[in-house]
Write a structure and sequence with these properties.
The protein is of the alpha+beta class and 733 residues long. Helices cover 30% and strands 28% of the residues. The two termini are 54 Å apart.
Length: 733
């Protein structure tokens, strides 16, 4: 029996009990039709779609539709079906699938839409994270206050292979993907399992996903092995991020066929530095030495310091298989236990590596400097060198500290010059981001035996400073040659967004640190002051990481913009062509201009820059995933005890804690905090107990215990020490 309405005519109650007049109803109906552009509805369908329950409001829908049609706001068909007259916007962009319920579309830059567009899962048309799509943007903002829309067409899949754990039942099988932004299990027919067994890690390729199907269908293309084993998990990470397992046979053959002989003709075409003191300084386990430094005192009292870089483009020619593979990889990737090189070993560790006591072809930036480290003049060109000594960082630092050993005089002088360059750079507004780098000690099976924080000493900073000088000099040389009109590859770091910086400033306040957000060099000064303040403190790691995240991301582009973090007007990457494709691009363009060539068309090079930036991001994400995996494994094997930690994040569902001793981050779930009912205070980023009024907020120092680790999800579950359930066994999944 229907409920009688006591409301006056023209008013009624909408869902939720709110009173709605005819003007509000008209806006609601118009908004609905506008957000369903291209579709027709009759009045009954609209009532149902809007979930209108009140009889008065139901009766008002039909007259309002006719009134809107008469006024030209909507269209009416002869069958009394109504549709929107408003033109929506059609754009293309990339899917960012944040959770199972909705995704955002990041619009292509050409549309100049700063706000991401929200798409509900039902309107994604089976698009997945990273896919390129064409969407319709609704004319009006939705209830969220954001621009909303729906996918019209899937233009390009970003990936069709996923890694996950296979689950086999008597009649069918599913693969549960590791990738956190893949929110659908993948259905596998029994005949497409490829020999995989229950609970094994596999690579699965999508084969079909019909519209209306809840899950995609796929087939297993590679069985990785038993979940939890080191090699299997590392291979899972490689497959998850689309990293190559090996080189194509033809590329390896091409590399092996390159002669290691340097002709006299080639040497005559280059500046000869073989008689000048030269050495390399690299990590102890490095094999690809792509930079060397030469030093000599000049007759006029100044000093000649040469930065010599492996001449990779002498060996890797355009339109070859080697070039294609280098471009596709775009960067070497450094996982926790291995390097996935950009170039085959024949090149990276052999022909191009600036090994000692061998003649090597290089591209050089040579500086004449006075004793104040001012550059009097410079020269850029192709050279041949002969390295006298290969130093590990530790050896070179020891020679400086002890003032003895090979080339200790030269090393000491170069170190003093680098300190002057560094001071000058910071005086001009460079930001001192000295991030904590955690390294693992692994046994022969890859099991973590321990971890340590990598220490950056003067020798690391010395090499960094001369590489920065070379990179900056090359960028400024090309830019100033034709006032920035010539196409070139720059490394650009934009000024930070003040709103994001304000958010970071508020976060730092929770730890007791004040940051005065200004502009330009004032931002740099404030950030440097903070970096000095937090050295050695428990919050150092988290604040350094968050400071970096609040900055703009450095990218490759042909736009001749500056580098905020380094305080350089122009900057590029010239010094690591063995491991970075953009450096190869720089070498090619640089030689082209040195030979008097005209500026090439910019769009092609910008596309290469975009590709390189994307590959850099992929490599960074894979490296982080491998570290997180080892952190989870390490904490699963670590001593069962209380750990000191610091609260680094607070959400409505849990508290994130970084363990001070191991730099590993875990979460205490609110549902497991059984001493009280905790409410989330979003404004102040804290949890408050309803009864005990206990507050848990950012920066709190806490004691925690590990209660569970999950290798698949790469998560660590914690609880506060002192919990009565501490004696329960630790779970490892």
């Amino acid at each position: 029996m229907g409920r009688k309405s006591n409301n006056r005519a023209g008013k009624g109650k909408a869902k939720g009990g709110k009173v709605m007049d005819s003007a509000q109803l008209a806006r609601k109906v118009l908004n609905f039709l506008d957000n369903h552009y291209g579709e027709e509805f009759n009045s009954k369908q609209i009532v149902k779609k809007l979930e209108i329950r009140d009889s008065v409001i139901k009766g008002g829908v039909e007259p309002i539709l006719h009134k809107l049609a008469a006024g030209g706001s909507i269209s009416k068909s002869p069958r009394n079906y109504f549709s929107s007259n408003k033109e929506p916007e059609f754009i293309e962009g990339v899917v960012d699938f944040v959770n199972p319920r909705f995704a955002f579309i990041v619009a292509d830059a050409k549309y100049k839409i700063e706000e991401d567009i929200l798409i509900k899962e039902a309107d994604l048309k089976n698009a997945l994270d990273g896919d390129r799509v064409r969407i319709m943007v609704y004319p009006l903002k939705g209830n969220t206050g954001r621009m909303e829309g729906r996918v019209l067409e899937l233009l390009e899949r970003s990936r069709d292979e996923f890694v996950g754990r296979v689950e086999i039942s008597p009649r069918f099988a599913f693969v549960v993907p590791d990738f956190k932004k893949m929110h659908h299990d993948i259905f596998i027919h029994k005949g497409e399992l490829g020999g995989a067994e229950h609970n094994q890690k596999v690579v699965v390729k999508l084969t079909e996903w019909r519209e209306g199907d809840k899950n995609p269908t796929g087939k297993v293309t590679r069985v990785l092995g038993k979940a939890g084993e080191h090699e299997v998990e590392i291979h899972s990470i490689m497959a998850e991020f689309g990293l190559p397992f090996e080189y194509p046979e033809e590329v390896t053959a091409e590399a092996e066929a390159i002669s290691d002989q340097i002709s006299e003709k080639e040497i005559k075409n280059r500046k000869d530095f073989r008689g000048i003191t030269t050495f390399t300084i690299d990590p102890a386990d490095a094999k690809d030495f792509d930079d060397a430094i030469s030093y000599r005192k000049l007759d006029n009292g100044n000093f000649e310091i040469g930065v010599h870089i492996a001449d990779v483009t002498h060996y890797v020619k355009p339109k070859t298989g080697l070039e294609k593979e280098a471009y596709d990889r775009a960067t070497s990737v450094y996982l926790v236990d291995r390097t996935i090189p950009m170039l085959p070993e024949r090149l990276s560790n052999g022909l191009c590596s600036l090994r000692p006591n061998e003649d090597k072809l290089t591209f050089s930036c040579v500086f004449e400097m006075d004793e104040n480290a001012d550059v009097v003049k410079h020269w850029i060109g192709r050279t041949v060198i002969h390295s006298d000594r290969r130093f590990a960082y530790e050896q070179a630092q020891e020679n400086i500290d002890n003032q003895e050993g090979d080339f200790f005089t030269e090393l000491t002088f170069l170190n003093e010059m680098a300190k002057k360059l560094r001071k000058r750079r910071f005086d001009k507004g460079a930001v001192n981001f000295e991030t904590v780098e955690v390294k693992f000690k692994l046994d022969e099976k890859g099991t973590p035996l321990g971890l340590f924080v990598k220490e950056r000493k003067d020798i690391h900073k010395m090499i960094e400073e001369f590489m920065l000088l070379a990179n900056r000099t090359v960028a400024e040389f090309i830019h100033d040659k034709n006032k920035g009109a010539d196409t070139f590859v720059y490394r650009v770091h934009d000024y930070p967004d003040l709103e994001r910086l304000e958010t970071f400033s508020n976060f730092a306040k929770k730890f007791g640190h004040e940051i005065k957000v200004g502009e330009g060099s004032r931002i740099s000064k404030a950030l440097n002051q903070l970096m000095d303040e937090i050295q050695g403190k428990p919050e150092q790691n988290v604040l350094e990481q968050l400071a970096i995240r609040s900055m703009a991301k450095a990218i490759y582009t042909v736009e001749p913009k500056g580098h905020f973090g380094l305080a350089f007007k122009h900057y590029t990457h010239f010094t690591s062509p063995i491991r970075r494709y953009p450096d190869m691009m720089v070498h090619r363009l640089l030689q082209h201009y040195l030979d008097g060539g005209k500026s090439p068309e910019a769009e092609t090079w910008e596309d290469k820059c975009l590709h390189s930036s994307d590959r850099e991001k992929r490599a960074s994400n894979a490296e982080r995933a491998s570290i997180k995996y080892k952190q989870v494994e390490f904490m699963a094997l670590a001593e069962d005890k209380d750990y000191e930690g610091i609260v680094v994040g607070v959400t409505e569902w849990g508290v994130f804690v970084e363990i001070t001793e191991t730099k590993c981050e875990g979460m205490i779930r609110v549902q497991d905090m059984d001493d009280d009912y905790y409410e989330f205070d979003e404004k102040n980023m804290r949890l408050i107990g309803s009864n005990n009024k206990k507050m848990i907020t950012l920066g709190d120092k806490v004691d925690v215990r590990v209660v569970a680790t999950d290798i698949d999800r790469r998560t660590i579950d914690l609880e506060f020490a002192g919990n009565e359930s501490n004696n329960k066994p630790r779970k490892r999944r």
